[in-house]
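The data layer described in this paper is built around a simple, fixed record for each protein. We quote a single record here, exactly as it is kept in our systems:
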Amino acid sequence: MQKTLVAIASLLHGAALAVAATPDVRIEHVTIVSPERPRPVPDVEVVIRDGRIASISRADAASASGAEQSSSAISIDGRGLYLTPGLIDSHVHLGSIPGMTDEQEARHPEIALEARQQLPKSYLLHGFTTLIDLISDPQQMARWMSHEPVPDTYFCGGAALIDGYPMNFIPKPQRYQAMPYLLIEPGTAAPPGIDAALHTPAAVVARMKADGAICVKTFFEHGFGPTHDLPVPKVETIQALVKAAHAAGMPVLLHANGVDGHSFGLEAGVDIMAHGIWHWKESTPTNEPTPAIRKILDSERARNVGFQPTIQVLYGERDLFDPTYLSNPAIARVLPASLIDWYRTTEGQWFHDLLAEGYDELKGKDPQAAQAIIERDYALPIERDEHVTGYFAARGGRLLFGTDTPSAPTYANPPGLNGWLEMQRLIAAGETPAQILRSATIANAEALKLDREVGTVQVGKRANLLLLRRDPTQTIQAYADIAKVILRGRVLDPAELVAH
């Protein structure tokens, strides 16, 4: 562990040196659009120095002052452009290549290397300059941060109940090493070699904090598909986890996508619901929130609980059954051609085939007929999550932008692009472009306690910024054609971030 922490420190030190070597940037005659400002501020000059915003002034005043400019400084004509904070995705998973198991990665090292080098660029290509990995550890972070360029990335420790979700997907005994922050409740026997005293709520939070985590992720999930009997934690356990996390200055997020999970989270006092609500107890075919669900949403709004709709999660499974999905030109911009070709192989279709095994109705059906069946079955949960999101958004709930990329070992939640698709789902659900900008910038920054560094265009903040050709408070199409991405003061051309 100590070697890993030293490796991370070295990487961060290297990043700091890169920032120091970055030339000054002067953006002239630009319009600032930032969530803390009631309206756009036109004709402004912004100077970036040492990776931070050094000054913001009216363009005419800056010109009159005759301020000195380094001969190596980069000047950008901002006429007709909008300067906004870089986007924050507060729900990603970066440990694996989407749709590829660790064993498959070992069998295809060249494909995997291309993929791992591209994935950070794909997030940046779509404007995401900050990421929060909700289940990670120092080793995985060191691997992710070893690439360049890479968004600013932070992580949560995953406090799963022993042998519950998502540990159930990992074979024993590997699962106990893969989830180092697992919880063991009193009266539960610890596996051989595991000290239960190190897996109390207080102990796991202390370990996460020492490892550099900024938040805690826990889980309430009985299962799905053929599995519906996974153990879930007692509310007292998660209340103790919340108490320990808050004492350490760390927010707590809960994996919950059903009525029972959201109710549990409210009782436990978590800070953020990491999904919307698409599993309903009621068997009604309606997609409108029932009185019971409205009561939950009203309670979350009243308590200022953060809410990540993650509508695109459901498309991550549904779209595996679209036979044309991998031919979409947008996919080729974010995933290497070698990886896309591998997805088309029998081996690359393993997760599609695994899902198909649970559908008796798909047996003997051609791809188009199977797609129609899957789209029919996913329509109701998608519509339910959309209506829940619309209800929460219309009443001023605390929306947080997160995609859960990838939500499963699926290639249909592609990095970066998945965020752009999530924005489209949110607009369809009733969110406004201004709500999306806020949820993906300052709201996320405040919820994860990063607002001193990022989330707004203000002097002293880290220069993680976007130059857009359209006002993002008026249309999300502003993110479809980003002029420049600025990462810690470094100006990136989107064309250099596209996959090959």
The radius of gyration is 23 Å. The longest strand covers residues 41-49. The mean pLDDT is 93.
